[in-house]
Write a structure and sequence with these properties.
Layout: H1 15-18, E1 25-30, H2 38-51, E2 56-61, H3 68-71, H4 80-84, H5 90-93, E3 95-96, E4 102-104, H6 118-134, E5 137-142, H7 148-156, E6 159-164, H8 168-183, E7 190-197, H9 200-218, E8 223-229, H10 232-240, H11 244-247, H12 252-269, H13 277-298, H14 329-338, H15 343-361, H16 368-377, H17 383-401, H18 408-419, H19 423-443, H20 449-458, H21 463-481, H22 490-526
Parallel strand pairs: 1-5, 1-6, 2-4, 2-5, 6-7, 7-8
Antiparallel strand pairs: 3-4
Length: 530
């Protein structure tokens, strides 16, 4: 893998990390969906970084699963919740992992840091700042998906590693994750690690497809970081709760994790930007506090007056209900027409609104009736684009439900309608059907005596050639079974009888094709004009 990535081989375990300086590298390891090996990658990468002399801390931000301690066979006595309550300090909750790595377990509570009271907020920010002082690397193991919790942790890091696999849903969910990051103006480097692949070539195929989609539709540049093979040793290590880099250090997966640590150190070596982990969460806390202050100032107290309005209300008089915020759709439309946004800007606004609607009301605006009405009104939609939409939807249907959208009969009738009464095309259709069936029969030619006899019949052999074929068959028989074949003419007569019978079947087939021809002509004649 070093050769593939154009990197010199490593000869010293500490050399690659020696030039990192005093800056802490905060890296968010994330994925669009679960089950792609994100947590396993985090734990093994941390071990390999530590083996090269780095001080490494894993921050478990997967509040729903907290699998880091499970993969390493550890049982945390305290979590960050005990830290926030003031009962324990940061040193009390940190776990000691293999190779000297440290783990902040089950970081539940930090996702809601803006909802903590002032004392808890100060404890949290101080703890994060302390972690930045102690470690060369802080690896944030985020939850899967595109929730606000995940996005906040990614934005708090200096860079992100998005883990993908060859599975289509992994690629689509990772694409959605990067799309959400772009909408929130994320500008840090995004590295892609391809997991569960056969080899480097396979990983590049997966990455190239993913990169092409992010470039074309999001205009976001992602960077290939490396790959981890689909190694059986990984599955065994997970079952034994021992990271593969410790259980099978000479396995292919372990060597790839080692190279990944080297690559990461090389790529971050020139990054002189200071960590903003604690600063990000401090700003989040301050922003939330400022917003609450503004909201309190904007809501007048009960009984207050504004301007020259009437005096205070009686204490038993109910206050009028607050008016709901009104969204001026005309202003949005005017922005599209007069503001002349770019295609990318307009698309981003619309997709953001669609996503917000779906999250708020748990339903999609892209219902069949709405889509049908939209395309019906788009008279200027190019034919090729319309066709591509239909083909794409049919392909998604077949992939999801594992059967074609249309029945065989409906597809045949559509094909007949597309011919449009052209006699030459009808004749070509029948000829191709016959040829196609014939090619399929050839694949089955030697699987039964009947098919072999049919092949002999279709070859138009004369009597002399047929006799020569029989001699060859007898020779094969004698060679295989060591005894001469029956030398009389009974077998030849049997073949001739079969050929005659097959000729009759051919006549029936021709009759059926002629009947199909008449049916097609009659259908086209009776079909209503478009």
């Amino acid at each position: 893998m070093n050769r593939i990535l154009n990197m010199p081989p490593t000869t010293s375990t500490g050399a690659s990390q020696a030039d990192l300086g005093d800056l802490t590298r905060v890296i968010a390891i994330t994925s669009g969906k679960g089950g792609v090996g994100k947590t396993n990658i985090t734990s093994n990468l941390a071990i390999e970084l530590a083996a090269r002399g780095a001080r490494v801390c894993i921050f478990d931000a997967d509040t729903s699963l907290a699998n880091i301690n499970v993969l390493m066979g550890l049982s945390p006595q305290y979590t960050i919740e005990d830290l926030l309550s003031g009962e324990k300090g940061i040193d009390d909750i940190i776990l000691d992992g293999p190779k000297g790595i440290k783990i902040v377990p089950a970081a539940s509570g930090i996702a809601e840091c803006a909802d903590l009271d002032r004392d808890q907020q100060q404890i949290l920010v101080a703890a994060l700042a302390e972690l930045e002082k102690r470690f060369d690397y802080i690896l944030i193991d985020t939850a899967a998906g595109i929730g606000d919790n995940v996005l906040s942790f990614i934005k708090s890091a200096q860079s992100a590693i998005v883990v993908i696999s060859p599975e289509p849903t992994s690629l689509t969910d990772a694409f959605a994750l990067i799309r959400m990051l772009k909408r929130q103006h994320y500008e840090q480097p995004i590295h892609v690690l391809v997991n569960m692949v056969m080899n480097y070539t396979n990983s590049m195929d997966v990455f190239n497809r993913f990169e092409a989609a992010t470039q074309k539709y999001l205009h976001v540049k992602v960077h290939y970081l490396g790959y981890i093979p689909d190694d059986v040793n990984i599955k065994e290590s997970v079952a034994s709760q021992t990271p593969v880099t410790l259980r099978n250090p000479d396995s292919l997966a372990s060597r790839c994790f080692g190279t990944l640590a080297e690559v990461l150190g090389k790529q971050l070596q020139n990054d002189a930007s200071p960590s903003g982990f604690s600063r990000f969460w401090k700003e989040q806390v301050e922003s939330k506090a400022s917003q609450e202050t503004r909201e309190r100032e904007q809501v007048p107290p009960t009984g207050a007056t504004t301007g020259d309005g009437p005096g205070p209300r009686e204490s038993n008089e109910a206050s009028p209900p607050r008016k709901e915020a009104h969204i001026d759709s005309e202003r949005i439309e005017a922005w599209f027409e007069e503001g002349q946004p770019s295609r990318e800007q307009a698309r981003e606004v619309l997709l953001t609104l669609l996503d917000a609607y779906a999250r708020q009301f748990n339903e999609s605006l892209l219902e069949p009736e709405i889509l049908t009405q939209y395309f019906a009104e788009q008279g200027n939609l190019p034919e090729a684009d319309f066709r591509d939409v239909i083909y794409a939807l049919e392909a998604l249907f077949e992939k999801h439900y594992e059967h074609p959208l249309r029945s065989l009969e409906s597809r045949i009738m559509k094909l007949v309608a597309d011919i449009g009464g052209d006699q030459s095309l009808i004749g070509e259709l029948i000829r191709q059907l016959k040829e196609s069936c014939g090619e399929q029969l050839c694949n089955e030619m030697l699987r039964s005596p009947t098919e072999f006899h049919r092949a002999v019949r279709d070859s138009d052999l004369d009597e002399e050639s047929l006799a020569y074929l029989m001699d060859g068959i007898r020779s094969v028989y004698e060679e295989r079974y060591g005894v001469p074949a029956d030398g009389d003419d009974s077998e030849l007569e049997h073949i001739r009888a079969l050929v005659k019978r097959l000729d009759q079947q051919e006549a029936l087939l021709d009759s059926s094709l002629a009947e199909l021809h008449r049916y097609i002509e009659q259908y086209l004649k009776d079909a209503p004009a478009p």
